[in-house]
Structures are given as C-alpha cells and as structure tokens.
Specification:
- With 65 residues, the protein is mainly α.
- The chain has one domain.
- It contains four helices and no strands.
- The chain is elongated and about 40 Å long.
Length: 65
C-alpha cells in the first residue's frame, strides 16, 4: 500500500500512516465477520478474496454488503 500512496505524491511517513490505518481496518473487518476457527478454515484463495474486498471497503471504493 505504501508504494501506491507514494506514487500519488504522499511523503513516506504519511503513506506509512495511511497504509497502517487501512491494514487495521481490514483486520477489524475479519474480526467482525469471522471467528478464529472460521478464518483458519478458509482457503488461501478465499482469504485473499476477502482481504481484497475488505481493502476496497476500507478504502471507500465499495460499500459493504
């Protein structure tokens, strides 16, 4: 995420801060929607798809269903 923010002209420290907030949001979404056991049962592909979806939700690109 940091390189994407830097390409938009953000200084590294600001890009780092924004990326940290986005990652925290994604983690929070997983905690809200999955138990630990459910998360462990997801395949790598399912986890990746959910991560991308939550990143879009956290970034304001899409609304949560």
């Amino acid at each position: 995420m940091i390189p994407n923010y830097e390409r938009q002209g953000m200084p590294w420290n600001f890009a780092f801060s924004m990326a940290s907030q986005g990652c925290s949001c994604v983690i929070d979404k997983f905690r809200e929607n999955y138990t630990h056991d459910q998360l462990l049962a997801l395949s790598d592909k399912e986890r990746e798809e959910q991560s991308l979806y939550y990143a879009q939700v956290c970034g304001g690109i899409t609304q949560e269903l």
